[in-house]
Amino acid sequence: MSEASKYFNRDISWLSFNHRVLEEARDQSLPLFERLKFMAIYSSNLDEFYKVRVAEYRNAAEQGITFTNVPNPAKILKKINNIVSEHWLEFSHILKKELLPELEKNQIRLYQNELPENKQQLNFLREYFYTEMIPYLQPVLLNRGTRSFLRDNRLYLAIKLYRKKKKSDQSKGRRARFALLKLPTNDLPRFIKLPRIDEGHHYMFVDDVIRYNLQELFPGYDIDGSWCITVARDADLGIEDEFWGDLVEKIRRNLVKRKTGNPSVFQHDRNMPTDLLNFLKETFHFRKQELVEADMYQNLHDFFSFPNPYSPALEWHAPKPIHPCELEEAGSMFEAIKQKERILHYPYQSFDYVIKFLNEAATDPKVEEIKVTQYRVASNSAVVNSLITAAHNNKKVTVFVEVKARFDEENNLYFADQMNKAGVKIIYSIPGLKVHAKMALVIRRADGIRKRSFAYLSTGNFNEKTAKLYADHGFFTCNDEYIDDMEHLFKFLKDQTQKPHFNKLLVTQVNLRKSLMEKIDREINLALSGKEGYILLKMNGIQNRELIDKLYEAGQAGVQIDLIVRGICCLVPGRSFSQNIRVIRLVDSFLEHARIWVFGNDGDKEMFLSSADWLNRNINRRIETAFPVEQPALRNEILTILNLQLKDNVKARYIDKNLKNIPVKNELPQMRAQQDTYNFLLEQEKMSQTNTKTTIH
């Protein structure tokens, strides 16, 4: 058996995940606008995939180089494009045959490649074109040698047209001409609402409003047709050497270059005539491997903004986040953490307590120092505001800002500047590494001696907006061993010349890989000695071959292994070398984002929460943390949530040996993990409230 067959390709595996997202748009049990949202997520995911991953394959194929474990990038690139073309056909079918009819049943009509018959609406379209659109439209006739530029992720109409014949030219044939028109989707809505003529609501793509009036822009020509195109450009910032010069300044300069990067994909309407497609390929120097056939309408992440005239009907509504009574009763987060360690489960429980924790640190007179890592924060960040407040209150605040967080570089630089102006000490990216750990450390001192201090560690970002959508876990503690480890880790972030020793934390670049290998070996030895060996891993992705091989070894030794992997999965289940391993993928309305590692340990289970997936980038090129959950009550709470996910037979899928998403079919009652998790935590909260009242009485 070939070495490659033991591992799925990273990016082909990712396409399997994104196809699972697309499947959610077919789920008739979901509200209609939730299904549209999944169409938008699929499209948005794919855009980023082409900007980042496909761009790397294109560059490698162009330069004749290979990736680690990818001997033929051009072959993979071709396979990716073929798969995506197939998915776009399915996308088109879902939209036209399933979702548009459902919209019409609800008296919402989205015209596609057709005009309304009502004269009032037609007149509106004409007037809208002249009053709202024309100022933004700049048609360009293309000639051989035309110097023009297709902007990143913008919609264009490619137009085929002919000069109108003069009476003297009736006997002459006409040569096809070509033109481009950028659609004004940055200035106008993608979906134009038409005047109401009945009980229904009517909308048109801005694309079609322009098509209807296109002749007005080319009065001397006959329009043969128009077809939509888009270009996604390489999102790499092109920083070849991070180890010399001012890295932050390099990132600032190169951000403006992102919009002009090399094309990684040219998507075009599959019905575009060959002569126009060939002309565009030649004019803009596209190559065959950069072409992907798509539908008539592109950039359909715009469905995020499709108007719902019946809102909040036809939408999915997240359950109201739980506010634990123990935290409410305690008033002070510090007092609550002194009582016992706490774990919050987002978005089922409120992220407000993280903000409250930082605000309390900002105003507590005993707090001298606050240290935080920042990877992705909200656009109007309450977390950043808390840190600025702390600096204004003469606290020593240090924030490690990862300015290489892709697509968040500009946001992170902006907030770094704001914090720096307020007196916060900013430590920027480490050359060659990304800091992905999620942690906050609050140090209290009196007379120069450290007193009871507090720590927060999480599987997710300090982002109050994504905390409403991403399923993560946040851990609060005042245990001195965690505090000591985190102080050492923050020192390591400032100076990597001396690697620290950790008692509690597992940290990449220091002890994480070795510790994982040892824990898997322990389960192997247990299984070989006739005892139960068990491993349960939940992550967004698993790729690292050394760790995958260790799991294969464990499975062959008799260790039972459950994997809950939302995204990339390079481990191949269902083969002779992957005995006793099952892989579950869970896609639902919340994004499963938590990383949890459980080792059976002969009945005394060990559990770690982490910021790290088992992708090569996490293991080799990032600073990540994993932290143990040792309190039995907290550990059991998380195990209950994990077991709900393992039993899910509604949204869970098995990943099979062919990378297919196979529905879980059994005779058990329906279990939908995300709903059941909320109900479990709600029931826990009711019991806690009852106990609190009993204690008071």
Describe the 3D structure:
By secondary structure, the protein is an alpha/beta fold. Helix content is 37%, strand content 21%. α2 packs antiparallel against α3 and α10 packs parallel to α11. The longest helix has 33 residues. About 1% of the residues have low confidence.
Oligomeric composition of the shown chains: single chain
Q: What distance lies between the first and last C-alpha atoms, to the nearest angstrom?
A: 69 Å
CATH topology of the largest domain: polyphosphate kinase like
User: Which percent band covers the strand fraction?
Assistant: 15-25%
Number of strands: 29
Structural class: alpha/beta
Mean pLDDT: 91
Please indicate the count of domains: 3
- What is the count of helical runs? 18
Rg from C-alpha positions?
A: 28 Å
> What is the overall silhouette?
globular
The top-level CATH class of the largest domain is Alpha Beta
| Helix proportion | 25-40%
